Amino acid sequence: MTNMKRIGKLIAGVTISLSVILSGNIILAPQFAKAAAASSNTVANSILTDGQQFLGVPYHFGAKSGQTDRFDCSSFTQYIYKLNGIDIPRSSKEQSTIGTYVSKDELKPGDLVFFYSPIHHVGIYMGNGKVIHTYGKPGVTITDMDTGWWSDHYTTARRVIPNNGQAVTESADKQSAAKSGKAPSNSAQDNQADSADDLDD
């Protein structure tokens, strides 16, 4: 009889332990999701902050990777993402194939947004319909992409920021972002977003 009581207590103890473990998992899952979202938001905010430091920097078709005294659209996005530990391809066409597809109504700050068909322009979504990018005379600028020409030529978007942010580490380039890069290349275009053709370095 004593052994039966001991067995009953043991079963009860195991049941209680399992209940605590399972309930703990239920609680931890949302907490992990919140932490991942917060980390992703931090990376996005850093990308946008870095991008805005280059407002007004001239546009130059075919600017070299890493060059910071002038950019074309895809060298700009590539450089800003690299500052935040995310390596992306050089051309806008290639950039449009990485990460995951995002519909326009689900855009989040830090997503890459693409224009033209076939794609040959890219920018970084800021939220509230704004995009930071570079083209023509404005150079690096902020534009409302939900109205006028940009709205008519919007094509697609991609999300490349890791959901948990763990893959993102600050690169050495970020410490010298204010320094100028390589010497300018020889060709330029005004009032026109750059073509993806001939942009690969």
From TrEMBL:
Pfam family membership, one: NLPC_P60
UniProtKB keywords: Hydrolase, Protease, Thiol protease
Region of interest called Disordered, as start-end residue ranges on this chain: 164-201
InterPro entries attached to this UniProt entry: NLP_P60_dom (IPR000064), Papain-like_cys_pep_sf (IPR038765), Peptidase_C40 (IPR051202)
Top-level taxon of the source organism: Bacteria
Domain NlpC/P60: 41-161
Composition bias type Low complexity, residue spans: 185-194
Family affiliation: Belongs to the peptidase C40 family.
PANTHER family found in the cross-reference section: MUREIN DD-ENDOPEPTIDASE MEPH-RELATED
Protein's name in the database: C40 family peptidase
